[in-house]
Amino acid sequence: MFPSLDVEKLLLERYDTVIGVDEVGRGALAGPVAVGAAAFSRTTSLEIPAKLRDSKAITESKRDAIAELSRDWVRHAVGYSAVFEIEQKGITKSLADAATGAIAQLISGKTIVLLDGSHNWLHDSGLDVDYHVQVKADRDCAIVSAAALIAKVDRDQHMRELHEEFPDYGWEGNKGYASESHIKAIQSLGPTRHHRLSWLGKILADANSLF
Fold first, then answer.
1. Residue 205's pLDDT is what?
2. 115-162: per-residue pLDDT in tens?
3. In this structure, CATH architecture of domain 6-210
4. Using CA atoms, how far apart are residues 143 and 10, in angstroms rounded to an integer?
5. How far is it, in rounded angstroms, from Cα 58 to Cα 119?
6. In which element (H, E) is residue 64 found?
7. Number of neighbouring beta carbons within 10 Å of residue 113
8. Is the N or the C terminus of the chain less surrounded, counting Cβ atoms within 10 Å?
């Protein structure tokens, strides 16, 4: 299933800019969270990049090329919150801070933010924007699909770079998520400074089960 611009065009009847937003890395054990933002306005081409869809439905080998087309299509930004921020502030505040930083770069005129999900997790951002929440927006709304894919590819590259520093954890493949090999590496080698330590209680408690 491919996304359309139906929702975005309706919103543009009342707004100057529609900013699609989606997050990446919420459930990972290692690495930062990233939030992508992509801006749609009356000057944006109505030609959606070929094969753009929900990033989870695009194979890794094809993501880079489609993300590059998406970057050329729309103004965009990716905001990050590092592991130490996740540990200090919690995941919800860290995602909101990352999103706020990305959105702030794209606001132009009367702006509405199109959020994937069922609730407005940015209501306390302080940004001078309105919000529209849409379930499955990452699947159905092209501007959100683009934001999600750009953030996904950006964060994946960051995790490949961290993999060069700590190759035993398999981040090149698992991108910091809880694969079986990643969990076993944490249990046998211990966590790194890039791990979210407060998320590892059960994993570390079960370390003796390996021996």
1. 84
2. 998 999 999 899 999 999 999 999 999 999 999 999 999 999 999 999
3. 2-Layer Sandwich (3.30)
4. 13
5. 25
6. helix 60-73
7. 25
8. C
Q: Are 127 and 106 in contact, with CB atoms under 8 Å apart? A: no
**Domain residue limits, the chain:** 6-210
Token pair 């199109």 in the structure block, residue: 114
Tokens (6 digits) for 197:
């330590």
Instruction: Find out whether 64 and 45 touch, Cβ atoms under 8 Å.
Output: no
Tokens encoding 24: 């990446």
Please state the separation of Cα 178 from the chain's center in Å.
17
Q: How far apart are CA 127 and CA 146, in angstroms?
A: 22
